[in-house]
Amino acid sequence: MFITIIEIKVRCNNQDKVRDILKGEGADFKGLDMLTDTCFRVPYRRLKLREGNIENNLIHYDRPDQKGSKQSKMLSGTLL
Q: Residue 68's pLDDT band (boundaries 50, 70, 90)?
């Protein structure tokens, strides 16, 4: 089953304030995940292998090529 996600990337000049807000909302810090993404050319949609310290996923997604915020339909499987 595909899920829909909205992706935004922004610069943050006050990370401490953002961390305080997240803690106040009950967010849980899981650690720093150093990621390596490998993108594969496939005929339909996109395929990415994401490898990290905390999580490893094979991600199949459909997203337009555009600047700014993006809406994606994504199917993700955890690799053991």
A: confident
Phi and psi at residue 46, to the nearest 5°: -135, 150
- From CA 75, how far away is CA 21, in angstroms rounded? 30
Where residue 26 falls (left for φ over 0; alpha for ψ -120 to 50; beta otherwise) is left
Cβ–Cβ under 8 Å, residues 52 and 34: yes
- At 5-59, the pLDDT tens digits run 777 788 999 999 999 999 999 998 888 889 999 999 988 888 999 999 988 999 8
For the entire predicted model, the pTM comes to 0.64
Q: What is the domain count for the chain?
A: 1
How far apart CA 50 and CA 78 sit, in angstroms, is 10
Which residues lie closer than 8 Å to 25 by C-beta, 6 or more apart? none
